[in-house]
Amino acid sequence: MASQYLNRFQYLPTIGCILFLLLMTIASINYPGGSEIEECSIGYSWVDNYLCDVLADVSHSNDHHHFHKVGLAAMICFCGGISMFFFYFPHWMNVQGTWRFVIKWMGLISMIGAMLIFTDLHNIMIAVSSILALPALIGVFNILYRRRLFPFFFAGILILILLVINNVIYYTDYMVQWLPQIQKISAICIVHWLVVMNWKFINLKKEFSGKNLTSKTS
Phi/psi of residue 43, each to 5°? Predict the structure, then answer.
């Protein structure tokens, strides 16, 4: 019964990612203007503005951003989608033992922490959520490698490298002019990685379940 209940919500990672893209686009289109580089610019710049710029109720140009709550909803959907991926991954891969706990709960807790990035704890929670997510990611990479799912494994390693670069630039200000672009590239890569794995692993789970059912009835 519990397994059937869980199966109803398996596509939440995909739904969260799609809502993130949709809501973030709406929030950015309605962004008044301004960035850290040019306060007087008009509208949202995909080159100069950060994703978090659309979360503030007042823009860099000192205008009220009426769609900032849409931006907040976008990031909540994104973190929620990622947390659901960590929650369901052990279920899809039939992971047991310590790794099941680490992937499911460390991933979930890290994304709860990530939601606090949109508060005054921004700088602290970036570091905290990144550290908490690391064990869960290591667990995911470990399972992907052991199951010989190498395309997903190497794509995940690339994303991890991008996230490390994001953090290094953010905390050191070295080559900070590239951070808005790297941030968006990282987000798109994460969305693609999660959505493809979401659908792939659900189908694998169904395939394995079908084989097990056939073997039991034959």
Answer: 75, -175
Q: Is 63 in contact with 40 (CB distance < 8 Å)?
A: no
pLDDT tens series, the chain, 218 aa: 455 656 778 999 999 999 999 999 999 999 999 998 888 889 999 999 999 899 999 999 999 999 999 999 999 999 999 999 999 999 999 899 999 999 999 999 999 888 887 777 777 888 888 899 999 999 999 999 999 999 999 999 999 999 999 989 988 989 999 999 999 999 999 999 999 999 999 887 766 554 443 334 33
Containing 57, the helix (H) or strand (E) segment is none
Helix axes 122-146, 150-172, angle to 10 degrees: 160
What's the N-to-C CA distance of the chain in angstroms?
A: 24
Q: What are phi and psi of 58, to 5 degrees?
A: -120, 130
DSSP state of 30: T
Query: Of the candidates 126, 164, 158, which has an alpha carbon nearest to the alpha carbon of residue 144?
Result: 158
Length of the chain: 218
Helix then strand count (H, E) for the chain reads 8, 0
User: Would you state the torsion angle of the CA atoms of residues 93, 129, 154, 158, taken in this order, to the nearest 10 degrees?
Assistant: 160
The residues near 74 (Cβ < 8 Å, ≥ 6 apart) are 19, 20, 21, 22, 23, 24, 27, 54
User: What pTM value is reported for the model?
Assistant: 0.87
> Which is nearest to 31 in space by CA: 1, 8, 58?
58
Cβ 150 vs Cβ 134: under 8 Å: no
